[in-house]
Amino acid sequence: MKKVKEELEEIKNEVLNCKKCPLYKTRTYPVVGEGSHRAKILFCGEGPGFNEDRTGYPFCGAAGKILDELLESVGIKRKEVYITNILKCRPPKNRKPKSEEIKACTPYLERQIEIIKPKVVCALGNYSTVFIFEKYGLKNQIQGISKIHGKVFEVKTLFKSIKIIPFYHPAVATYNRNMKEILEKDFKVLEKFK
Ligand code: URA
Ligand code: SF4
Q1: How far is CA 5 from the centre of its chain?
Q2: Is the distance from CB of 121 to CB of 132 less than 8 angstroms?
Q3: In angstroms, rounded to a whole number, what is the distance separating the alpha carbons of residues 99 and 101?
């Protein structure tokens, strides 16, 4: 069996050369994801923004600063978790992801989850929540993020169980103090999973 490191390396090489959707034309660097290969908690955002596109690292701009603060507030180190996105390349001007792009790109995310085997998948924002809920057969439980943020959904299969937790996207807290407080409150649920 191949090692986790090699399998993630394979994904990285594929993503770096990927042309499966038109976003490759406008990206500077794809953002594959980073963090612990044995992470118990995996965070999935929407897609790279300006700073991420320039550096190749996820959540390294303003939204990343919020995410760092949220992690710190519950005593979780960024290097202990894995952080990635549903789209690996930046949509121009940070526009919303298109469904064809999500369809083309999410097999990478699915493989990342398959390889890392986190106990908890945290979906950041609406797009990520919808994708993750559909993937895990929770489609009938999708309501607006304002209804389900911070709630723990458990999906059991024959051999394993995985927890899915939707959160507001940290970017909303860069311009809204109330949102930061809601996110801080919601993140407390992660204390029991670290
Ligand atoms: N927003 C996201 O959804 N992902 C990032 O990596 C950065 C900002
Ligand atoms: Fe490939 Fe995803 Fe980038 Fe599209 S967004 S080119 S599918 S890596």
Answers
A1: 19
A2: yes
A3: 5
- Distance between CA 60 and CA 24 in Å, rounded? 20
> Ligand 2 center to residue 147 CA distance, Å?
31
Give the tens place of pLDDT for each residue, 142-158. 988 999 999 999 999 87
Q: How far is CA 104 from the centre of its chain?
A: 16
Highest CATH level, class, for 2-192: alpha beta
Q: Is 109 in the pocket of ligand 2 (CB under 6 A)?
A: no
Segment 33-59, tens digit of pLDDT: 999 999 999 999 999 999 999 999 999
Neighbours of 97 (CB within 10 A): 21
Query: What does the chain come to in residues?
Result: 194
Q: Where are the domains of the chain?
A: 2-192
Half-sphere exposure of 125 (CA within 13 A, CB side): 19
Nearest CA owner, ligand 2 atom 7: 105
